[in-house]
Amino acid sequence: MGNKLFPAQEIGSLPKAPWLLNYLRGKDAGPSDLDHLSKWSKVSGFENESETRAILTKPRDAANQARLRELASIFAIRYLESAGLDYVYDGEENRIEMYEHPVRNSDGFEFYGHVRSFDSRYYRKAACVSKVAFRQAYHLNEFLFIKQHAKRHVKVPITGPYTIAEWSFNEYYQKQRASDYSDFRKLKFEAKRDFVLEVAKQIIQPNLKALVDAGAKWIQVDEPALTTKPDEVPFFVDAYNECTAGLPCKLSLHVCFSDYRLLYPHILEMKNCSQLALEFANRDEEKRSAYDQLKLLNEFGDKREVGLGVADVHVDDIESPELIKNRIEYASKILGDPARIYVNPDCGLRTRSWDVAYEKLTNIVKGAELARHSFA
Amino acid sequence: LKQYDFNKILGCGCIDGRNSLLESPRELKTFISRAKEILEPVDIYLSPNCDLEFLPETVAEKKVRLLGETKRLVA
Hints:
The complex is a heterodimer.
Chain A: H1 18-24, H2 31-44, H3 49-56, H4 62-82, E1 87-88, H5 100-104, E2 106-118, E3 121-134, H6 140-149, E4 153-154, E5 156-159, H7 161-166, E6 169-170, H8 172-177, H9 184-213, E7 218-222, H10 233-244, E8 250-255, E9 275-278, H11 295-299, E10 305-311, H12 321-335, E11 341-345, H13 354-375
Parallel strand pairs in A: 1-4, 3-6, 5-7, 7-8, 8-9, 9-10, 10-11
Antiparallel strand pairs in A: 2-3
Chain B: E1 10-15, H1 25-36, E2 44-48, H2 57-74
Parallel strand pairs in B: 1-2
Helix pairs in contact in B: 1-2
């Protein structure tokens, strides 16, 4: 980014374009789908509006479906670019979601059905039933396409090994160790370590390598589950080092909705990681106390960049540019070095509407611009 | 249990509600026989170690059936 302070980046997901979803589900595009397409095409300068509109009336054969998926990808790239972000992806328009996508495209897993994640939310949780194995580089084509079409820098988000293991049932690796039941906790703990390391070695490493070989300059490892079992954070660190060693690429870690103290001191041992992208805005209040957790980095001498979460992804209230500027300045003061700060939403924006997400993103960009002036 | 002179009914969580891996009746039998060394069988209630809502429905059903089979095996 040269010397520009506070570059703006997305963290991952956007909602799926409604016209894409309806087409894939066999529903005809209604007026609201067409309004969505036309409104955001105008706003973002999406160059393929008429082609998209034409496909929506065509038969749902494989070629049309594949092309519409590509168009949705470009559509999301333009949306993020026009919001003013410096680093973009495609809002993961063509991934199932962050867990199911990698698991469905790797070997060793079986899906039994839905399981509650929280409140009334359910997801399809897989069980690891045999040794996990690489089947294909499941983000490679997506990345190559985005790289070809993006006009800004590209950052690839990828689900990390700990989250994949933590969100799955561990049948296979527990069975492998199941000779001694005298200490069930220990058995589960050690089987989990085996599982996390294997996911890193067998699945994540070849995926990362494929992306880097294809020209990825920056990959963000998403680990929302990282602090679920605090005594297992070291498993992740070992797994991370295992699958990122020697990769000539910028790598960063995204963790959210967690007590970041639980990450320390373990994550200091992560060798090839130059940024921590963290969520703060949702727990912030007038005194900016949410951002006080950044003092942890100072406490442990952690000099990495910070992807600063400055917009809450779970509410529709729009943060003003002034509020965002204020958060950036507060964080800069704590870290003592504004050059280490990137700005982003707390997490992926997939649960917001396209309108709300856009306002949040544009205000992040405006807030960063205001902060840049005050540091100039 | 021995050490504290336990004299209540024990809800014995012998089925893992957090893993879809099915316990084998043999390992359950071994586990329960250890409880039987200390408690009367009528004071041992076989149960999962937590509720089953975090398992897929099909797996939860298998686990409940397994509890029934285990009872027949050890009774």
